[in-house]
Amino acid sequence: MAAGASSSSVTTATAGSASTRRPRPAWLPDAFVVAGYVGLALLLTSGQWGHPGRLFHQAGDQVLFEWMLAHAARAVSEGGNPLYSTALNAPDGVNLMANTSVLGLGVPLAPVTLLFGSQVAFCVAVVCCLAGTATAWYALLRRRLVTARSAAAVGGLICGFAPGMIAQAGAHLHMAAQFLVPAILALVFRPAPGPGEAWQRAVWRSGVGLGLLVVWQVFIGEETLVFLALASGVFAVGYALADRAAARRHAPTLFGRLAVAAVVAVVPLAYPLWFQFHGPQHYDGMAFAAHGFQLDAASFTASARQTVFGDNWLPGLLSPNPTEENSFFGPGLLVLAVVIVIWLWRRPLVRALAGCGIVFALLSLGTELRIDSTATGIPGPYRLVAGLPLLDLAVPARFALVCVPVLGVLVALSLDRVRAAAVQGLPVRLLWGGAVVAALLPLVPTPIRAIPVAPVPAFVADGRWRPLVPAGRTVVAVPPVTGAALSPVMLWSARTGLAFDAPGGYFIGPSGPDDPAARWGAPDRPTSVLLRRVAQTGAVPALTDDDRRQAVEDLRHWRAAIVVLGRLAQDEPVRRTVEALLGPGRQVDGAWVWDVRDRVG
């Protein structure tokens, strides 16, 4: 009797405990998915955390974006024109709206930049770009397209961490920051209630939101927005061909919200876009032959160099440079995509996705088809659009980035379909899951490669230059104009929060006061050409009095106060050349310094 009572009591207590146990929060699994994305992004950027003397492999591009983040932080903290700066290319300045200023990233990250510096801000931006893009696609898939959380998680993983995204993230923040793309697509193609007052409210709300997101995306990267607009148009046409009834039903809503979005966006964008094309230091054309940056057809089945199966040899033959490995999906994923399209062909969404992916894959091949690094003489489809406005300035290789979310969504749809089809049983699920894992294995990324860089001299980093540089004067680094992506003075400027003005830098600007043709960096002057040649060759030239007079004239043009030589590969020949031009310098805290205030006047 006592034993029975005890058993009854235990049962009652257990039941009571179970009934009072709190249910797991519905958001917790989503939080685990996002945490996984963030953890992976942190792992991929591990080569730089805590290493101020290292940059990602495309070092000049990182320096550019570190500088842009530092400029945005300074504009937030001190005011000033965020679209223009004289901290580089002094005294003429730089039109930042005409460059990749990423104000849409730099302004939100200003507290990080001000507290921890430009390198930490850049690494945080890379993490946000990768994990944020994956999270945004996961949210869109979960809410609109699939029911299985696992399917959405895998789709988001592909969209955020495909080889093309990793390649861009190490250098081009404006291309890697695609976390607004799913949100924009969600508003563009958002279903709306039937005609009536509710329909008008829905169109207005989504149109306003869409316009604001477009404004934000412009200040992150206009190139991504152009690709998104083109891809949306191709997708919409493909969907309309696949389901004409649905297209007719949704067309009024689509065009209505696009009209509202255009009106909302034009007001805040009118002046910045005018400044970009007509403001000081604007330019015409591009500083490089964009059409030459195309992908090899064989790159789509190859492994990128920053993957577990990649190497440094083959990708170099199949892509224009390490930052443009935008395809490299491996054979497994492409075969899987073909199977998915055939399997789910009846769905208009799948047909539209397949058409969009094929169009942009073909455009990425450029004006002439190349296979295994061999030109075939066959015209590429890009020739059909190469002369159109905006597209004439586009980099063809980047069209392949549109294929990344196409493949991610297709894989997510297939996983969701297998999970939902309970009649197929466990073996089919395991078989398909194994096929997906095998296809994605060659895409597993490795940490972004980092390389050492010459440190900022303590003389510059610690502000020892300040007593020597009056207001309105500049710090001239040697060589003053590099003519290459890696600009020492730009790194110094970024790491010191744009504390001084300097000539030179890595940006796109006009070729001269009367020549708006685009070029990289500041126009050359005789002294910058001379010193750059010595830095490249190590050969000290025989100098004349004319060279010395020209050096003083160039320093006067740059409004120089001091000339500073940091660590260079050929720093000893460069030092001897500067001394032959300006006289003896003095070594101060890791730098050679020449005070030229008296000479310049």
The number of E-state strands comes to 12
Low-pLDDT runs of 5+ residues are 1-13
**Helix proportion of residues, in percent?**
40-55%
Calculate Rg over CA atoms.
Answer: 28 Å
Percentage of residues in DSSP E strands:
5-15%
Structural class: alpha+beta
- The N- and C-terminal alpha carbons lie at a distance of 108 Å
Average of the residue pLDDT scores: 91
Q: Could you describe the largest sheet, including whether it forms a barrel?
A: 4 strands, mixed
- Give me the side-by-side strand order of the main sheet: 7-10-12-11
Give me the number of helical elements.
24
Explain what the structure shows:
The chain has 601 residues and is an alpha+beta fold. The protein has helices spanning 2-20, 28-44, 59-78, 103-106, 110-116, 118-145, 149-161, 163-169, 173-176, 181-188, 197-218, 222-242, 244-278, 314-318, 330-343, 348-363, 403-420, 425-440, 458-461, 488-495, 526-537, 545-557, 571-582, 597-600; strands at 54-56, 84-85, 94-95, 368-371, 374-379, 450-452, 474-477, 508-512, 515-520, 560-565, 586-588, 591-595. The chain has a 4-stranded mixed beta sheet. Helix 3 crosses helix 6 (118-145). The chain is elongated and about 85 Å long. 45% of the residues are buried.
